[in-house]
Amino acid sequence: TESYDLKTFKTYEELVTDVKRYIHFYNTQRYQAKLNNLTPLEFRNQVA
């Protein structure tokens, strides 16, 4: 996505680490308009 358009990685491990970091960011810090401006984690906790 937006983080990976111009990024190159020296090793597979760097790629995996960066993808995991982005997934964590996406689920815990990136607000989603379609989820009433909540993060996916906040939305999930609200519904549960």
Q: What can you see in these coordinates?
A:
The protein is built from two helices and no strands. The protein has helices spanning 12-28, 40-47. The chain has 48 residues and is mainly alpha-helical. The protein has one domain (12-47). The chain is 52% helix and 0% strand. The protein is elongated. This is IS3 family transposase. Residues 2-46 form the Integrase catalytic domain.
C-alpha end-to-end distance: 28 Å
Number of DSSP-assigned strands: 0
- How many alpha or pi helices? 2
- Given as residue ranges, the uncertain stretches (5+ residues, pLDDT < 50) are none
Largest sheet: none
Q: Into how many domains do the coordinates divide?
A: 1
**What is the chain-wise order of helices and strands?**
HH
How much of the polypeptide forms β-strand, as a percent range?
under 5%
Helix content: 40-55%
Shape summary? elongated
Query: What structural class do helix, strand and pairing data support?
Result: mainly alpha
Average pLDDT confidence is: 90
Cα radius of gyration in angstroms = 13 Å
